[in-house]
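Course assignment 3, question 2. Fill in each field.
Student: A.L.
Task: Predict the tertiary structure for the chain below.
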Amino acid sequence: MSTLVFTDPRFLDHHPGPGHAESPARLDAIMAEIGRAPLAGVTIETPRAATDTEIEAAHSPAYRSKLAQLDGQYAELDPDTGVSPGSWKAARLAAGAAVGSVEAVMAGRADNAFALVRPPGHHARPGRAMGFCLLNNAAIAAEAARRDGAERVLIVDWDVHHGNGTQEIFQAREDVLYMSVHQFPFYPGTGAAGEVGVGAGRGATVNCPLPGGQTDADYGVVFHDLFLPVGRAFAPDLIIVSAGFDAHARDPLAEMRVTERGFAAMGSALHELAASTCGGKLVLLLEGGYDLPALAASVRASLEVLTGRREDFPRGAGTAAIDAVLSTRAALRGAGRIVSQT
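Answer field:
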């Protein structure tokens, strides 16, 4: 099994501000952990920058132009999102790594891929930066997959924050299914179970909002009783994961209780779903995660899954997670998407 990792030291040139949680130290910690004990089957490559056309598949030309004009400058784009002189180049490389991961997997050059990038992307809206994010890497990657011949693309977002930008970009589409499990109510305030898409995309947005304090077992019921049956019915040609690790029990920005085992179990579930629906085509994109040791260990656990490890969720889900799954299933039934029993 071959796993391709895209990363670049130039991602460290993005400095969102002094003391900012989304710091270059995040990627330093990950790469130190990977270097400590390299995994067999993993090849590391340098990405290319995304083209204007690739970026504008998910973002407005005016917004792309605005970011490009900030190249080489310091600026504040919102209260959480700043840029430095190297940020635009880093963002284009991050989007390019996402596209390159998709291209490699779709072409059969790798079984799966993980883009270890920054800045993250899932909050970036079509015409606006938000929540540490400049370009929506998952959306840009999904559009690349569609151009490469994927008729249906599944995006699974397990970051602790709802990916409002990704949802907004695809909410009226039926060819890209977006599924998110996240803490709620919480930043950015979106992601209620009743948000199921609009127009032709009604039923192609799946949100499972959870209260804080949920464990590996709680995430297991979300995957087994919601995400996996919906994913099997959708039968994607590629699965993209917005892989944030800020649901970790040690993360300072959220209140979940997920461990490295939980992230490995999520990855295993999607690895098996990909094997059964799309020949194993699976791409992970780094999103959040702000406790450095927890982030590095969780990324390693996810890479171990991509290279062959299998992990199961523990049993013992609580009533809050079970109720959340039932609420989401009810919302999807109202949108005309019938979720089979597992």
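Instructor remarks: The first strand starts at residue 3 and ends at 6. Residues 3-334 form a domain with the Arginase; Chain A fold (CATH 3.40.800.20).
Grade: pending
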